Write the structure tokens for this entry.
Amino acid sequence: MATDQSFETPLTYQGHAVLTLRQIDRLNQVAKGTAFRAFKRVEAQLSEGEDFFVFELNAGNATDVAGLGPAAMPEGLWEALQSADALYPSSQVVILLTQKAYSQLQRAANLSSL
């Protein structure tokens, strides 16, 4: 039985409702990597630390997170990401997108949801 993936619950980071790239792919029912490619097209128009947040996952231990963005990943965020199944198993970085960033992605990739 197919599940309805047309709704994703945003996570909260620094007071912003955010979605991961995997959540956006599922929300829009598109192939893995679609949101990432759209993000790369609009990244220069966005402000890191305001519109999106980036964290690198240590390849040796995925729970050992070092911040690439404005701050290190706070306690509880990793657990929330895992609980929401918000990351692809092969993810090397976590990119959290705000509503503004998601709106830019929608225009870049003709994504219709939300």
Summary: Confidence is low (pLDDT under 50) at residues 1-5, 59-71. The helical segments are 21-27, 34-42, 77-83, 99-109. Residues 15-108 form one domain.
